[in-house]
């Protein structure tokens, strides 16, 4: 059964100016239910993640200040959100969504989080709409519980996973792979284990060739027994921030290739949604919905 973490009850925590792109967190599961791709039993609502698990990844001093709403104005500005208790609560629930999705993936082969992909959160700070790093927390949890020995993070959001790269800089059991816009945010890139910077305006064929070249090589070299997939749809040609020229079909082919590769190699995969900033909310929802449709079709 495809298990999907849904934290829709926390969407109101976002300030009005940021709600438009975040509407997808409600619309995406509603669309999947409406079209019959999933049933209500596929969805689960995670509880807040225990503090002890957060602290396996994030600096205690940073977490203490974040939890008590004591970040400096500069730190708050870098996150992109006005800081509030509701926002922190929302983030903590999203973190557990990915942890629980990882556990479900071990059972079913794949599981997904409607939110997550918060790859700009560092050990000791947040950036780019990310306060805590869900894939990093979940990866560390699997390692600590001895549920995985070698993890590969496949980050195909248009923005480099700089926080994830920093967190695992000295952790050989987690290999970070980021294929992103080379001239896009963040201006200062961290060093992932493998970075593939892409030129502005790259189209479907050239984009997919990069993925087809690197992913099989990574499986051969890294030999992961678990994969986290950051499936941002801000690679679309309609995206306001992406600067790439990948079509809706190209984005779907990307997801199909990643998910088919995981299934064929019998590697469990936990998927987080990441970014998407097209002008039309329907475009964002359709692109993300394709990822869930493919997961249901390929695995179940």
Could you walk me through the main structural features you see in this protein, from its secondary elements to its overall organization?
GO terms for molecular function: histone deacetylase activity; hydrolase activity. The protein has one domain (3-299): Histone deacetylase domain (Arginase, Chain A). Helices cover 44% and strands 12% of the residues. It has 11 helices and 8 strands. Strands 2-1-3-8-7-4-5-6 form an 8-stranded parallel β-sheet, with helices on both faces. Strand 7, helix 10 (248-264) and strand 8 form a beta-alpha-beta unit. The N and C termini lie close together (7 Å).
Could you list some keywords that capture this structure?
single chain; 300 residues; alpha/beta; Arginase, Chain A; eight-stranded parallel β-sheet; 11 helices; 12% strand; globular
How is the topology of this model organized?
Layout: E1 3-5, H1 19-22, H2 24-35, E2 43-44, H3 51-54, H4 60-67, H5 73-79, H6 85-108, E3 110-113, H7 134-144, E4 151-155, H8 162-167, E5 174-181, E6 194-198, H9 204-222, E7 226-230, H10 248-264, E8 269-272, H11 281-299
Parallel strand pairs: 1-2, 1-3, 3-8, 4-5, 4-7, 5-6, 7-8
Helix pairs in contact: 2-11, 6-7, 9-10, 10-11
């Amino acid at each position: 059964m495809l298990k999907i973490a849904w934290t829709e009850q926390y969407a109101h925590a976002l300030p009005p100016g940021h709600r438009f792109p975040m509407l997808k967190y409600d619309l995406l599961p509603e669309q999947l239910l409406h079209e019959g791709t999933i049933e209500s039993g596929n969805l689960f609502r995670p509880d807040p993640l225990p503090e002890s698990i957060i602290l396996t990844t994030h600096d205690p001093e940073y977490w203490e200040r974040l939890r008590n709403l004591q970040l400096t104005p500069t730190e708050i500005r870098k996150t992109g959100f006005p800081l509030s208790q509701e926002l922190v609560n929302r983030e903590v629930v999203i973190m557990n969504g990915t942890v629980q999705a990882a556990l479900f993936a071990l059972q079913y082969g794949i599981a997904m989080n409607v939110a997550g992909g918060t790859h700009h959160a560092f050990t000791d700070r947040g950036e780019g709409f990310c306060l805590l790093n869900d894939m990093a927390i979940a990866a560390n949890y699997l390692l600590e519980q001895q549920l995985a020995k070698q993890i590969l993070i496949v980050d195909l959001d248009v923005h480099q996973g700089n926080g994830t790269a920093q967190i695992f800089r000295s952790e050989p059991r987690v290999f970070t792979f980021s294929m992103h816009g080379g001239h896009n945010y963040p201006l200062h890139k961290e060093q992932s284990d493998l970075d593939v910077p892409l030129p502005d305006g790259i189209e479907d064929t050239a984009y997919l060739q990069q993925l087809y070249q690197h992913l099989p090589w990574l499986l051969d070299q890294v030999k992961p027994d678990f994969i986290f997939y950051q499936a941002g749809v801000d690679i679309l040609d309609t995206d306001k921030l992406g600067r790439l020229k990948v079509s809706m079909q190209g984005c779907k082919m990307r997801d199909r290739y990643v998910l088919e590769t995981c299934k064929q190699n019998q590697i469990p995969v936990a998927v987080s949604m990441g970014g998407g900033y097209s002008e039309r909310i329907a475009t964002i929802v359709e692109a993300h919905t394709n990822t869930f449709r493919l997961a249901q079709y390929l695995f179940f």
